[in-house]
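Sample 1 of the test manifest.
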Amino acid sequence: MRETMTANGAAVTGAAARAAVTVSNMTKRFPAPGGGDKFVVLENISLAVEEGEFATIVGPSGCGKSTLLNVIAGIETCDAGSVAVAPREGRKDAPRIGYVFQSPRLLNWLTVEGNIHFVLEAQNVPRPLWQERVSRHLEMVGLAGQQRNYPLNLSGGMQQRVAIARALAIEPDILLMDEPFSHLDAITARKMRFDLMEILARARPTILFVTHDLAEAVFLSDHIYLMTTKPARIFKRVKIDVARPRKPEDAAVFDLEKALVREFFSVIEAGA
Amino acid sequence: MNGRARGFLLRASSIVLMIALWWVAALLMHDNEVLPGPAAIAHTIASDFVTPGPQGHLAYFHIGITLARIFATFVTSMLLGIGIGLTMGLSRTVERSLLVFIPLLLTLPSILMVFVAIMWFGFDEIGGLVAVLVIVAPYVAVNIHEGAKAMDPSLAEMAMTFKARKTLLIGKVYLPQLTPYIFSAFRYGFGQTWKIVALAETFGLKFGIGYMFSFWFEQFDMSQVLAWIIMFVVLMLILEHGVFARLESRAFAWRAPIAQ
Amino acid sequence: MRAQHMKAMVPGAITIALGLVLWQAISLFFLPIFFPGPIDLVRTMVEIYGDPSSWPIVGATLVRIAEGFAASMFVGCIMGLVMGLKRNLEIFFDSWIMVLLTFPAICWAFLSVLWFGLSGVAPVLTIFLIVVPFVVMNIWQGTKAVEKNLLEMGRAYKADRSLMLRKVLIPQLMPYIFSAFRIALSLSWKIALVGEAFGVGSGVGQQLIYWFQDTRVDMMLAWGMSFMIVMTLIDLLVFRLWERHSFAWRRQLAV
């Protein structure tokens, strides 16, 4: 179990590792609801995720993790600093970013395949490729044959799987996941985590995962960034050196999680 | 610039733009006398208040008559509508009997009802009253009926165990629960009423703003027609948005404040 | 279940029957041209619609309604969308909408005739000016109800404006477009009658004022109520079909 610590969470990467997502001293402010001064949501955030890595940002709810993902995805802009997202090795065009949200955010008036077609069209994937992409990725998430079904006829877990299939169907360079399993019951969530690991074993996009659940983070990630509350700062970067495939009951996983929990609370209590 | 100032500026500039467009259009059509400009109309309106018009009356007279008609017919329709709606809400038999007629009455075009009422009840106030009643009361009744169905029956039961008189029951238990419905019926009903009164005055009734529309229209006096239209619309705008907005906030003082 | 349903309709049916009987009885005390009974009325309506020369009259009115309705739906939807999406334009135009909503149909009818003479344009313009604010209000309200989450999702996947409009915005606006459609249609035909009552030379509204001036209540009622029936049938036909067709994706709730 090794840890790589740095002062403000800036990455110390090994030689020749390619950064897929680089955030440098990024600050984000929101206007206050009453119309007064803006308040700082994210302060001086820096991180670097290597290509093919599974990085997780862990922090309490409402500390700005979703905002960070939104800025990386390009949905929101930042007020200071920079965000750079690079495509996979060998490609020169704009990086393809897939995003899985906390809720499935499906278009309920379109069929399952219609929803996937939507993002394929948005990403300018040529039409002849669509059918194959849809069936391959639905099969990957365990929903083979559900193309013609409507989202409201599916359970919450199945809807979220469609959302994952949708994100993977564009064959993304970067996959952003914002607490994707937090709205599911514990059993479904646990199954989805295992399935996610299997799916990702086949096609390894770079993944930036966000959660408030340390156990989930330790189970899934290569690196964890620990984050505090408003203004959000990253105060630690931890490397998870446990071999895959991992089990949540693994002693190594469990111990690491306990250590991180302790660390987290000490920081929170010191800050509060 | 903060939100409120910006909003005010935008609204003010849009009204200014409206008047400016009117002025430009009037200039362009000047030789046809088809569209008098804002200045000419303002002048006409002013003169209507000091110079006696046809039949020797000033503008106040006609405006007063129209307002009186609107007030009288509206109050009657509201009372009738509330009465019917409440009865429908409290008695299933009444509800089922009357419910069939409501869609019919709501689909009838107002102009037909105005014509028929005038023909049957004369070119005077009764005709106008009937026209308004037939169109507005059913709408009010439907609204109140909805409200009556949504009332909390346990409150009425409570009042009855204390042997409350009918008037007390209606006044203090039923009506307060119905206020939101009464209010929404009020606003829409008022809008309908003055439009029907305008129709009735145009086609049949003597004196009043609608009568002036018709009179000056037949004289092809565009200036006067526009003047009276503007007077009417401004008056209604003031009534609908000025007076009623204030009444609304007072009527709902007893409700729990909604979190901002 | 069925029997219960039937039983509930009995008081209504009784009232209708009683009403008809009462109506017929009262009408016996009056001249049919002044107070027609139901039988006379139906006979007159059949005569009117049986006469081929009536059809162009009804046709003229239907055309004007279609024109005014189409124009107001088109402009209204666009304006409502624009006002819903751009806050500045919303604030700017809402005073115009307020004024338009307050303007009575009769006033526009006068003005249109004064500007465009006794032609078919006047009623169409009147319909447009009265109906547009209602459509705008409906669509504008619809845009407020659009789910921001889905817009964000679309933007995250870099969907362009046309795709967002087609697949994300408009499907969410459909119920509001539908209700705007119904309100617009039901208003349009009533306003058409007012607009035509100024003697534009043809149309059902013109028939109404003609018979009004001739003090023929029977003809007035016959023309008016038969047209009301025609428009109600159109409304039922168009909207029941549309409603059934387009809302199939909603979850089927077991009843």
